Amino acid sequence: MNRCKKKEYRVWRTAVIARDKTCVVCGKGPKYNNTHHLIPHEFQDYEYEIDNGITLCPRHHALGKFSAHKNPIWFIKFLSKKFPELYWIAIDRLGGIDEV
Q: What are the pLDDT digits (tens) for 6-63?
């Protein structure tokens, strides 16, 4: 990751955590919270848009049985129920993506 990308990432991460305050699943945090890209960061058009991020504790981001990385089906269902606006933004954007 180059220097410019690191700065963009830090700004994006700070904005997402400031918006959500704590893990959106369990309310823990904010000390060790992570940010999770709804649309993978390989899709650079949306990489650092605030609507492409959500705040998760380490357990719900990647470590636990019910985490965005280990159980994406669970996470998609959670997102669609608790944050339908972010869910539909991501779905709409993914509809415009042909292939990686």
A: 898 999 999 999 999 999 999 988 788 999 998 887 777 788 889 889 999 999 999 9
Dist CA 23 CA 14 (whole Å): 14
CA pair distance 39, 42, nearest whole angstrom: 8
Q: Is 91 helix (H, G, I), strand (E, B) or coil?
A: helix
CA separation for the pair 8, 86 (Å, rounded)? 21
Q: Which two tokens stand for residue 60?
A: 């719900």
Domain spans of the chain, in order of start: 3-95
**CB-side neighbour CA atoms (13 Å) of 78:** 17
User: In this structure, which amino acid lies at residue 30?
Assistant: P
Residue 55 main-chain phi, psi, to 5 deg: -90, 130
The pTM assigned to this predicted structure is 0.82
DSSP state of 40: -
